[in-house]
Design brief:
The protein is an alpha+beta fold and 537 residues long. It has two domains: 11-283 and 474-532, FAD/NAD(P)-binding domain (3-Layer(bba) Sandwich), CATH 3.50.50.60; 287-470, Alpha-Beta Complex (Flavocytochrome C3, Chain A, domain 1), CATH 3.90.700. The protein contains 16 helices and 23 strands.
Length: 537
């Protein structure tokens, strides 16, 4: 924290400063497009943060792309849905602000050629039994982006997770998060009012007379101060990569996170240092993580075959359940039952392996690499497999026989796998977590009522390891419906705003639908700028 004006000599002044270049880059564009001199500082050498890893889904009910796709979506139904699944009256104003902002933001962005037309992606809402839920979903995506259109700017965009970790070739056209970030970067810089500083890490907030008036940073190893005449927006991701904070609040280290490596909570710490309140620090956007041959997990969703078993050799969840719910269930049961669920094991057979493979579509190691690393266990019998994964054979055998019975009837009597619109989406596709629109058709196995319930009876048998991962923490600075950062007594800290995973989630402890995290980042970054320029409703 800095409370005086005696900063470094190399001090520059802007109207708005945005800390972080993921979803905050869209907020920066909104500010710059209104004529505000806007600075974006990015800690690393590439822009995009965790957004660049994502499919860039935006859960924006009632937005224009839904109407263009012929989807009738009443925002009041979405409001009913949010009220039901979040069940937190303290978040209702933020929910209402979010629902209004999403539609307005899309309309505004589509006026700029860089954003062209967003498209609807049919990803069902995650709580199918709740009033207001829809099987068509409310998620929209940015259009793909030819790399050539960005030119040299493309080199500034963070690579996708498959590229960073495994050298996956992305080709001449990018989609999902990289397309969104590339478009936002170009639009921001072409306003003529936008400045980007990479390799520039937040070191503290400058406060004068109780108002945030700038930031102190370290840029290429040198201290620098930037003044903000109108406001500072903190949008630098969560604290998923900060071991001390994770262990203190969540009893997890963050090593299994799928968040961007530099997300160590710098913006959160800076806000707390000047008296900001926090919420939900024990929460994350949890997902199941499939441990790969490199020893680290990758976001795994849409399990089509096999079963997950805990340390007692028993099933404990609908394995195809929406990823946030499945991830939370692993964490909850491990903490509350006395039975090991971290790690748990994905057990399947040769039929499943032949149909869908394992791992990350498009960046999948050879089977030998999985086996040699120990990420995948293989056995000729279930009894041998039980020994390899250290679970009781009698329990595993009983669990598999029960599941095989469900496979022949097509009804999972324990966990109802295959019955919700979300589950049914995976009947004939293999999911591609980085971008749901890249899901591809899977080979169907005839003779069974459900492609999600195939018996485990064809040797050899396999087991992979599943651990709780995340796509970012979801607790952070407490904000209001204008994205203003609040003190413990509820008063706003003048000049300070937060969005994305730097702020505590509008959706509380739940994940309503695909695109809620990034949708929130964009919506509340937009609301912050509207408040700064006096356009807030």
């Amino acid at each position: 924290m800095t409370n005086n004006t005696n900063g470094p000599d190399n001090e520059d002044s802007y109207d708005v400063i945005v800390v972080g270049s993921g979803g905050g880059l869209v907020g920066a564009y909104v500010a710059a497009s209104r004529g505000l001199r806007t600075l974006v500082i990015e800690k690393t050498g590439a822009v995009g943060g965790t957004v660049a890893y994502s499919g860039a889904g935006l859960w924006f009910p009632g937005s224009a792309p839904l109407a263009r796709a012929g989807i009738e979506d009443d925002v009041e139904n979405a409001r009913t849905y949010l009220r039901e699944v979040v069940a937190d009256s303290a978040r209702e104003k933020r929910q209402d602000a979010y629902l209004d902002a999403g539609r307005r933001l899309i309309d505004e962005l589509e006026q700029n050629p860089w954003f062209q037309s967003f498209v609807h992606g049919p990803v069902p809402d995650y709580y199918a039994d709740s009033p207001g839920s829809t099987p068509t979903g409310r998620t929209v995506f940015p259009p793909p982006l030819p790399v050539a259109e960005l030119g040299e700017r493309f080199d500034l965009v963070r690579r996708s997770l498959p590229t960073e970790r495994w050298g996956f070739d992305e080709g001449p056209v990018v989609s999902g998060g990289r397309a969104l970030i590339g478009r936002a970067l170009a639009a921001f810089l072409e306003t003529g009012n936008g400045t980007l500083r990479i390799n520039t890490a937040l070191d503290g907030l400058v406060v004068e007379d109780g108002r945030v008036v700038g930031v102190d940073a370290v840029s290429d190893g040198e201290p620098v101060r930037f003044r903000a005449e109108r406001g500072v927006l903190l949008a630098a991701g969560g604290f998923e990569r900060d071991r001390e904070l994770r262990e203190r609040h969540q009893h997890l280290t963050g090593e299994w996170s799928n968040g961007a490596p530099a997300n160590t909570g710098d913006a959160l710490k800076a806000g707390v240092a000047i008296g900001a309140d926090t919420e939900l620090l024990d929460e994350a956007w949890f997902v199941p993580g499939l441990v790969r041959p490199d020893g680290l997990p990758v976001f795994h969703t849409g399990t089509r075959g096999g079963i997950w078993v805990n340390g007692a050799g028993e099933r404990f969840v609908n394995e195809t359940r929406p990823y946030d719910q499945a991830g939370h269930e692993i964490v909850r049961l491990h903490a509350s039952t006395g039975v090991r669920h971290i790690p748990c094991h994905w057990v399947f057979d040769q039929r499943q392996f032949d149909r869908d493979g394992i791992g990350f579509p498009g960046a999948e190691p050879a089977p030998a690499e999985w086996l040699e690393s120990g990420a995948l266990k293989k056995a000729d019998t279930l009894e041998e497999l039980a020994r390899l994964i250290d679970v009781p054979f009698d329990a595993l055998d009983r669990t598999v026989k029960e599941f095989n019975g469900y496979a022949h009837t097509g009804v999972d009597e324990r966990f109802r796998r295959g019955e919700t619109p979300w589950d049914q989406m995976f009947q004939h596709i293999v999911p591609f977590p980085a971008d749901p629109r890249q899901n591809f058709e899977a080979t169907a196995v005839p003779g069974f009522p459900s492609q999600l319930l195939l018996p485990i009876d064809t040797a050899p048998f396999y087991a992979a390891t599943v651990v709780p991962s995340d796509i970012g923490t979801k607790g952070g600075l407490r904000t209001d419906e204008h994205a203003r950062v609040l003190r413990p007594d509820g008063r706003p800290i003048e000049g300070l705003y937060a969005a994305g995973n730097t702020a505590a989630a509008m959706s509380g402890r739940v994940y309503p639908g695909a695109g809620t995290p990034i949708g929130s980042s964009l919506a509340f970054g937009y609301l912050a700028v509207l408040d700064i320029v006096g356009e807030a409703g």
